[in-house]
Amino acid sequence: MATSAAIFSTFISPQMASFSANSSPCLRLLLPTNVRMVRTMTQATASKPATGPRPPRGIMKPRRVSPEMQAVVGVPEIPRTQALKLIWAYIKEHNLQDPENKKIIICDEKLKKIFGGKDRVGFLEIAGLISPHFL
């Protein structure tokens, strides 16, 4: 971001009123008679301007995949998010969801290699089971 929203900070500003002649100087320093809140506005700026799109990081960064995964997704290097999409496309294309419970995937030979030899896999397990196939 080039500029960000303004940030408010608060300062306390004691203002002393005159005391009577009887009061001690020590008491005058310790007890301010009028305390006023002062708000100042500061503005944060970016340290350097954005010069273009930044390279992908994290799960969006393309990574090499194992040969077993490559047989399903079709490419040697792919981001995690795209790999998951292509696996779901493969599952739907080959009609591998359980007809009674669509959350369960019935694995064929290619998917068994990716999912650790399991015959049936829940859809929430897929993301964890593909992790070892990213090199």
Please give a structural write-up:
The chain has 135 residues and is α+β, with helices and mostly antiparallel strands. The protein is 27% helix and 26% strand. It is built from five helices and six strands. It has helices at 25-30, 67-73, 80-93, 109-114, 126-129, and strands at residues 3-15, 34-45, 63-64, 77-78, 104-106, 120-122. Strands 1-2 form a two-stranded antiparallel ribbon. The longest helix has 14 residues, at 80-93. The radius of gyration is 32 Å and the shape is elongated.
Question: Which key terms come to mind for this protein?
Answer:
alpha+beta; 135 residues; single chain
Order of helices and strands: EHEEHEHEHEH
Number of helix segments? 5
- Rounded mean pLDDT score: 78
Instruction: Assign the structural class, choosing from mainly alpha, mainly beta, alpha/beta, alpha+beta, or little secondary structure.
Output: alpha+beta
Please bin the fraction of helical residues: 25-40%
Describe the biggest sheet? 2 strands, antiparallel
What value does the Rg take, in angstroms? 32 Å
Which regions are unreliable across 5 or more consecutive residues at pLDDT < 50?
A: 5-13
Residue fraction in strands: 25-35%
- The separation of the N and C termini measures 33 Å
Shape verdict = elongated
Number-wise, the strands total: 6
Strand order in the largest sheet:
1-2
Give me a quick take on this structure:
The chain has 135 residues and is of the alpha+beta class. The two termini are 33 Å apart.
